Amino acid sequence: MTIFAKILSGEIPCHRVYEDAHVLAFLDIGPVSDGHLLVIPKEAKAHLHELSDDSAAAIGRVLPRLARAVMAATGATAYNILQNNGAAAHQAVMHVHFHIIPKLASAGLGVGWNAGKLDGARAQELVASMQAAMNR
Ligand code: AMP
Predict the structure, then answer these.
(1) Pair 93, 4: CB distance under 8 Å
(2) 10 DSSP 8-state letter
(3) Which end of the chain is more exposed for a tag (fewer CB within 10 A), N or C?
(4) How far apart are CA 76 and CA 134, in angstroms?
(5) pLDDT tens-place string over residues 44-94
């Protein structure tokens, strides 16, 4: 059982900001910046790609509203949404979660971005392969 499952069941407390039938949002206990919020589905899945369409839709519906609330509470005019999948991608809690991290003058998410250059032949392969996967 993950720590977020324990929060959902009420076994562990949280600083709850929002809750509906499918979603819970609460303050991150180790904020990267002031106002750092976590948004989780109630569905117990480790990774985004495992989520049901209903959970995904419920999160998508409320994320912009929660981002506006974070901005209003902190005065931030910029923020990052971070969503890690897999330990190799820095996921520590194996229950799907979206971070909303305000970018403040003093603090915020640091991003390493080693951009390459898209190869035309590889792009064609990728498009065909992803489209086939979407149609399965
Ligand atoms: P990630 O690396 O994407 O899995 O991030 C997990 C996040 O969960 C971290 O930012 C932690 O600070 C946060 N976290 C862990 N336990 C709790 C908790 N009990 N309440 C609130 N946030 C938590």
Answers:
(1) yes
(2) T
(3) C
(4) 36
(5) 999 999 999 999 999 999 999 999 999 999 999 999 999 999 999 999 999
Q: Does the beta carbon of 49 sit less than 6 angstroms from any atom of ligand 1?
A: no
Give me the active site residues, please. 97
Q: Is 30 in the pocket of ligand 1 (CB under 6 A)?
A: yes
Could you tell me the two tokens for 74? 């902190």
Spatial distance between the Cα atoms of 103 and 68, rounded to a whole number of angstroms: 13
How confident is the model at residue 106, as a pLDDT?
85
Return phi, psi of residue 62, to 5°: -100, -15
Please give the structure tokens belonging to residue 81. 């949404």
Q: Give the model's pLDDT for residue 59.
A: 98
All structural domains of the chain, each given as residue ranges with its CATH number in brackets, are 3-134 (3.30.428.10)
Instruction: Give me the mean pLDDT over the 1-27 stretch.
Output: 98
Q: Is the beta carbon of 73 within 6 A of some atom in ligand 1?
A: no
Q: In terms of DSSP bridges, do strands 37-41 and 79-82 run parallel, antiparallel, or are they unpaired?
A: unpaired
Altogether, the residues listed in the chain come to a count of 136
Identify the CA nearest to 42 among candidates 56, 27, 32, 29.
56
